[in-house]
Write the structure tokens for this entry.
Amino acid sequence: MTTFPGGKPRIGLLGTGPWAGRTHAPALAAHPGAEFAGVWGRRPEAAEELAAACGTRAYGDVDALFEACDAVAFALPPDIQAPLAARAAAAGCHVLLDKPVATTVAAAREVAEAVEKAGVASVVFCTLRFAEPTARWIDEQAATGGWFLGEAHWLGSLFAPGSTSAYAASPWRREKGGLWDVGPHVLSVYLPVLGDVTDITSVRGPGDTRHLVLRHASGASSTATLTLSAPPEAAEAALTLHGQRGRAVMPGWDGALGALGRAVDALLESARTGVSHGCDARFGLRLTEILAEAEREGDSDGAAEVASGGHVGATS
């Protein structure tokens, strides 16, 4: 358990891109229960600009930021995030991670082990687990049980011709596609409701599209179509469960800004109580294991059994 001297915990931000500027920085600056203590980025001039806009300070040395903070939030590409997150945990900082934690199992495991060794709290920001009303809906469906089928599609148009999205220039998204960018969102719903993934079939579609068929520990099965290349007219995110009580359709959500604030609340609560959150670094490792297997499996156009990660809930 952690107590914060002076009452308000000090939270820093690593990252200065569009995601940091539009979501993390404003949410941290507006959070009533935390002090936005500073910004570090790979481009010092961008860190200075973002810090000035939010009334905080920029750090040129990431270790100095860790020293000045009780917790840090990450808005960095996954494979840049992972080693810095392990470093932050070793420095005693609680960590609010972005999804995916990493795009290799080894890097994600390093983060989870560093968090556990340091005894710090961790939360992975899977938007649907913290946004309203989706977070409440997920809890309700997990409590209801009796589901035998899930159907999901997340059709983003980030890479569609004529896209003006600021995220379209993201090199890691270009390389890894919708499987790694929006796949964590779908899995973050399926795992707490249907149980861990035990088998995967993965088939490629047009562009970066992946079609997944999953078997879950509960005996249920699910499907997910994931892409960032859909025509804008077809863009949509939807998930439906079918079970003993009929159908349950996931509602829309209130956006990332409010969800990020609730993720900060979850991290601070975990730090204060010492109780791991269900969407912690170990859960983030499990997501990476599943996504990595889906990627390999899709590249070989076959079916594969996924070893159980043994972690779906809050224990670590």
User: Anything to note?
Assistant: The chain has a mean pLDDT of 94. The CA atoms of residues 133 and 253 lie 6 Å apart. The domain at 10-129+257-279 is CATH 3.40.50.720 (Rossmann fold).
